[in-house]
Amino acid sequence: MPDLIHDLVNDRIQTLHREAEEQRLVLRVTRVQRARRKVKRANERLHEALSRQV
């Protein structure tokens, strides 16, 4: 019985580690998406500014 409890505890710890890693990955993806949107908007503003110069 103690082995079963030990195994269950280890499984839960591994699950928590996996879930934490998934959350870190989601956060990184979200940050990259936000950065890409900012770059796109900056490029659009630059393009507009350059087109007004001509």
Write structural notes for this entry.
The chain is built from one helix and no strands. The protein is mainly alpha-helical and 54 residues long. The longest helix is centred in the middle third of the chain and has 52 residues, at 2-53. The model has no long low-confidence stretch (mean pLDDT 96).
Overall strand count:
0
Strand content: under 5%
Largest sheet: none
Count of runs of 4 or more consecutive helical residues: 1
The secondary-structure element order is H
List low-pLDDT spans.
none
- Compute the gyration radius: what is it? 23 Å
Mean pLDDT: 96
Structural class: mainly alpha
Helix content: over 70%
Instruction: Report how far the terminal alpha carbons are from each other.
Output: 80 Å
Which outline best applies?
rod-shaped
Short account of what is shown:
By secondary structure, this protein is mostly helical.
Keywords:
54 residues, mainly alpha, 1 helix, rod-shaped
Write the layout of secondary structure elements.
Elements: H1 2-53
